[in-house]
């Protein structure tokens, strides 16, 4: 029978003994000093590169615990590797040995005592971060994430480290050798193996993407659970193995057998969790290869053109249920016995109808082959019903999978790459996710430089929760009974859909409606530009007029919407197109609180310029600085030929944070790419 009183006594005694260790005290103080300096630099310095560390409320506890976890792992290895040695050498546990206790109680007590000590260190660390957060941020700290990150980062790592150190010390019986071996393992697992193999070998989770979005939370929750549970269970298994192998008489042979079985089960479960990450990843790779082969088979085949696309969509938690009416035309000089459509493989088609007649079809990955005769230049209408979720592995088939899987890293902040979201909290779908049927394919493995733009008229009706807002292309006709209706009166190249709880600031200038749509609480920009709110419309008007003159044509749409999307949403640059998925017709998808967007710390930039001007005796009013800042930031990001917004450039000064050679958020595609297209199969260099 396990005595919890014995475990408690041993844990309290072990915690006190370890706390008296000068090694623990000195290195803990050093760790706290490093973390304090880090938070002061990243929170009080208002430079452009520091914005990412404080933009999201979760980023302060995230970076705090992530750094501390590496340092405390080293401290824990040293202390845990002294397991039993100090007991025998210094007689530190005589008061414990005189008590009747099992090996299970003894080892668990020592483990719990050590973990409690380090959790105290975690508490002090996050308290420092919390205090600095309160002093510097424009928002109240997110208490939930201050509790969440120690649980998912520190606890699994500490249990694994203690279990591994105990086991190594039990077998090797040499503390210096154990310490050197484990220290080498830490270095290799973090700095060499950590960024490879989906961070499988990184027990600290230093390279595991763990950014928590205000809009959707974790986007890779399954991977996080599998990874952290894997190391947690392996650590518990190693602790039970230590109980079996410890050089101390066991209470009973039966107890030893049970501990051995427990060790085997926990280690096996932990390995199973980690293997699951590998298996899921390999399955996605295989599915992508299969889709590429299917695309090779169908790309060159004659096909129909979609003239009109009418979509009725019901948003239900993590699925979309769609009924689509397509007006199609055979523009080829030959009759077709069949034609094909492209649709995300996660969406299941359950009927295709023409004039009340069910059509037979074959599904191959993302390809739907419809067995239906259509004469040359014939026009007909078909109805398709489908529902399901979005398989994101089917996006960006022309981009290497390793690049897609690699997180965007900014110092110690790792952000996963996501191309689409469908959930009860938030939905974002672009053409890349293939959420509605299109004629043909988006990618040809044989001619990857060829990009096709298919112009169609769209009519979209969306039903979702009453507290949700919906954004798409076209004119919003009505919002009644939870139905949002969008209609394009001119052909568009593509359609996107965003659903979420948004607030909107808008202004109409020269018949163009400009709107900024953001999550509640993310309107931090208002404070910075409050003094010029009456001037902003004229500034926007002048910038648009200047850009229209430069492009020698008028802006073609009647609205331009900036829509905030989760921090994890990512778009990849392609050589054969001059726009990213963050730029859609009449819409630009901006990162959450401008997380990775240049100069998003508007107040910080204004204050820095004002202080610099004051020191140099430059007589410039604060309002003039605000006007100049607004004009410069908006122009650089959306209108300039050069912007500091390249998230994919590995040659940038701060690990991809700042670069001046990409137009990620430029409105340029709205003037040409989305309104005109020249295409040649034989001479792809003239495509544009």
Give me the number of helical elements: 17
Classification by helices and strands = alpha+beta
Summed over residues and divided by their number, the pLDDT gives a mean of 86
β-strand percent reads: 15-25%
> How big is the Rg?
30 Å
- Specify the helix fraction band: 40-55%
Q: What topology, given as strand order, has the largest sheet?
A: 5-4-8-2-1-14-17-16
Biggest sheet record: 8 strands, mixed
What can be said about this structure in brief?
This protein is α+β, with helices and mostly antiparallel strands.
Sequence-ordered SSE layout with sheet pairings:
Elements: H1 4-19, H2 22-44, H3 51-55, H4 59-80, H5 85-90, H6 94-97, H7 103-136, H8 143-172, H9 175-191, H10 221-245, H11 253-298, E1 305-316, E2 319-329, E3 339-342, E4 347-354, E5 357-358, E6 360-364, E7 367-371, E8 379-388, H12 401-405, E9 408-410, E10 413-415, E11 421-422, E12 427-429, E13 438-439, E14 457-463, E15 469-471, E16 475-480, E17 483-487, E18 497-500, E19 502-509, E20 512-519, H13 525-529, H14 536-551, E21 559-565, E22 583-584, E23 587-591, H15 602-615, H16 622-639, H17 668-671
Parallel strand pairs: 1-14, 20-21, 21-23
Antiparallel strand pairs: 1-2, 2-8, 3-7, 3-13, 4-5, 4-8, 6-7, 9-10, 11-12, 12-18, 14-17, 15-18, 16-17, 19-20, 22-23
């Amino acid at each position: 029978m396990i005595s919890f009183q014995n475990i408690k006594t041993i844990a309290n005694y072990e915690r006190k003994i370890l706390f008296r260790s000068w090694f623990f005290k000195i290195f803990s103080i050093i760790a706290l000093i490093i973390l304090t300096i880090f938070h002061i630099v990243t929170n009080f310095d208002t430079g452009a590169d520091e914005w990412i560390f404080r933009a999201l409320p979760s980023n302060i506890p995230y970076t705090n615990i992530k750094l501390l976890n590496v340092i405390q792992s080293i401290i824990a290895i040293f202390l845990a590797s002294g397991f039993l040695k100090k007991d025998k050498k210094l007689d530190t546990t005589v008061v414990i040995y005189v008590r009747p206790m099992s090996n299970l109680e003894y080892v668990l007590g020592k483990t719990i005592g050590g973990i409690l000590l380090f959790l105290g260190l975690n508490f002090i660390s996050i308290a420092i971060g919390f205090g600095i957060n309160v002093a510097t941020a424009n928002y109240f700290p997110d208490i939930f994430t201050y509790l969440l990150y120690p649980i998912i980062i520190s606890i699994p790592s500490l249990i694994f480290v203690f279990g591994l150190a105990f086991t190594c010390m039990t077998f090797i019986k040499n503390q210096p050798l154990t310490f050197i071996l484990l220290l080498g393992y830490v270095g290799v697992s973090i700095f060499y193996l950590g960024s490879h193999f989906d961070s499988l070998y990184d027990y600290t989770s230093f390279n595991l993407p763990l950014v928590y979005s205000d809009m959707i939370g974790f986007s890779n929750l399954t991977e996080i659970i599998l990874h952290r549970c894997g190391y947690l269970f392996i650590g518990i298994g190693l602790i039970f193995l230590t109980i079996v192998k410890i050089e101390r008489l066991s209470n009973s042979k039966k107890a030893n057998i049970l501990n051995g079985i427990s060790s085997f089960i926990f280690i096996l479960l932990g390995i199973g969790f980690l293997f699951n990450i590998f298996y899921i990843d390999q399955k996605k790779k295989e599915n992508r290869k299969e889709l590429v082969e299917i695309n090779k088979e169908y790309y060159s085949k004659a096909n129909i053109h979609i003239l009109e696309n009418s979509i009725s969509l019901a948003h239900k938690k993590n699925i979309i249920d769609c009924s689509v009416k397509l007006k199609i035309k055979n523009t080829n000089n030959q009759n077709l016995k069949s034609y094909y459509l492209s649709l995300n493989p996660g969406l299941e088609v359950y009927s295709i109808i023409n004039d009340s007649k069910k059509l037979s079809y074959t599904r191959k990955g993302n390809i739907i082959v419809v067995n239906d005769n259509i004469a040359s230049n014939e026009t007909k209408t078909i109805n398709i019903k489908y529902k399901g979720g979005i398989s994101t592995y089917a996006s960006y088939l022309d981009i290497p999978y390793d690049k897609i899987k690699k997180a965007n890293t900014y110092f110690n902040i790792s952000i996963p790459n996501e191309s689409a979201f469908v959930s009860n909290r938030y939905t974002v779908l672009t053409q890349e996710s293939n959420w509605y049927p299109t004629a043909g394919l988006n990618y040809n493995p044989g001619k990857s430089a060829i990009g096709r733009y298919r112009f169609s008229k769209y009519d979209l009706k969306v039903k979702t929760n009453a507290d949700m807002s919906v954004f798409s292309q076209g004119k919003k006709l009505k919002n009644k009974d939870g139905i949002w209706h969008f209609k394009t009166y001119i052909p568009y190249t593509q359609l996107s859909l965003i659903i979420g709880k948004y607030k909107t600031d808008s202004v109409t200038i020269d018949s163009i409606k400009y709107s900024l749509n953001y999550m509640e609480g993310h309107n931090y920009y208002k404070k910075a530009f409050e003094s010029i709110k009456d001037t902003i419309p004229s500034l926007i008007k002048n910038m648009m007029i200047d850009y229209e003159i430069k492009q020698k044509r008028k802006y073609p749409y009647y609205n331009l919407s900036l829509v905030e999307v989760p921090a994890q949403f990512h778009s990849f640059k392609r050589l054969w197109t001059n726009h990213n998925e963050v730029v859609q017709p009449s819409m630009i998808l901006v990162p959450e609180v401008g997380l990775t967007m240049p100069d998003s710390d508007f107040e910080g930039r204004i204050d820095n310029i004002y202080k610099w001007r004051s020191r140099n005796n430059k007589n410039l009013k604060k309002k003039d600085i605000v006007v100049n800042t607004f004009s410069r930031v908006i122009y650089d990001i959306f209108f300039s030929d050069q912007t500091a917004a390249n998230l994919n450039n590995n040659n940038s000064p701060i690990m991809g944070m700042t670069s001046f050679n990409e137009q990620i958020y430029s409105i340029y595609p709205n003037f040409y790419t989305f309104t005109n297209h020249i295409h040649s199969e034989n001479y792809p260099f003239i495509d544009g």
